[in-house]
UniProtKB/TrEMBL annotation:
The keyword Lyase applies. Belongs to the ALAD family. Transmembrane segments: none annotated. Its EC number is 4.2.1.24. Homooctamer. It is an enzyme of class 4 (lyase). It comes from Aquamicrobium zhengzhouense. It catalyses: 2 5-aminolevulinate = porphobilinogen + 2 H2O + H(+). Pfam families: ALAD. This is Delta-aminolevulinic acid dehydratase.
Amino acid sequence: MSIHSRVPLVRTVDEITGSRRLRRMRKADWSRRLVQENRLTADDLIWPIFIMEGENRREPVDAMPGVFRMTVDLAVAEAERGAKLGIPAIATFPQIDNALKDDAGSEILDENNLINRATRAIKAAVPQMGIITDVALDPFTSHGHDGILRNGIIVNDETVEQVTQAAVLQAQAGADIIAPSDMMDGRVGSIRDALDATGFQDVPIMSYATKFASCFYGPYREAIGTQGLLRGDKKTYYLDHANSDEAVREAEQDLLEGADMLMVKPGMPYLDIIHRLKHELRVPTFAYQVSGEYAMIEAAAANGWIDGEKAMLESLLAFKRAGCDGILTYYAPRVAELLKQEG
């Protein structure tokens, strides 16, 4: 057969498809917009920021281009900027001085610690901005774990007692949402009991219900100053990334204990988990696009291998398609700026 010869269609395309031509609604920009199933808006964004001691200072996080640690006064200014962009909430993470760290992470119980001071300052200046705080101990421990270390073991019940006390202090400082990420058994129910008993019945809990033992957290650990401190790994309390049924059981347990919202962390490698939680449990579901996900996009963009802006937007829309009600992302202000310009 000649390379230029044609094989005739036995049936016409209309006969093959039954005249169902699915490209019809893709032919023009207006029609594509008309039938778009998912959209990303500023309302979907939660902005994680890193706080450090001092005044009028910011430090770049080398592994996360465009992300900085900042002092409380600059965090207040950034919160004001975020509010103007329509970002509903920020999540604050502290870099604690190593001199204040110990095996029990006891600095988390100081009502005037860095995270609580930041909450009070931001809430005073930008009361309309939601503030989400984490009660995990890893920024405060000398060993980098999320719980109290005893004889080489992360002790569950002592850790639960400590994060429960810390949750009340954070609520007293003005935190709008308590988001425990330590993955200790029973911590959600204990925090709910304590918040209710101290007059914070209206403070919701966003549980990091399915936090996986992942390699994607590395740049975050640099940002909060725990890189190199970690003794061993976190596999005895974080989820095995091979397991999805276990993730659903964890989420169900947290809901039974009083969680109002669920978090999946990391995000992109776990879109199947997001989809399962949203469609099986039907509660507000969030994802954390973690530091490693951010760093991969930024590194590829810096090398000219991908269009960074398009990759950023596509990755965030994937979370919406999977079922997310919102996304914690370091891209929040950049995306909000783009959406504002488009609007």
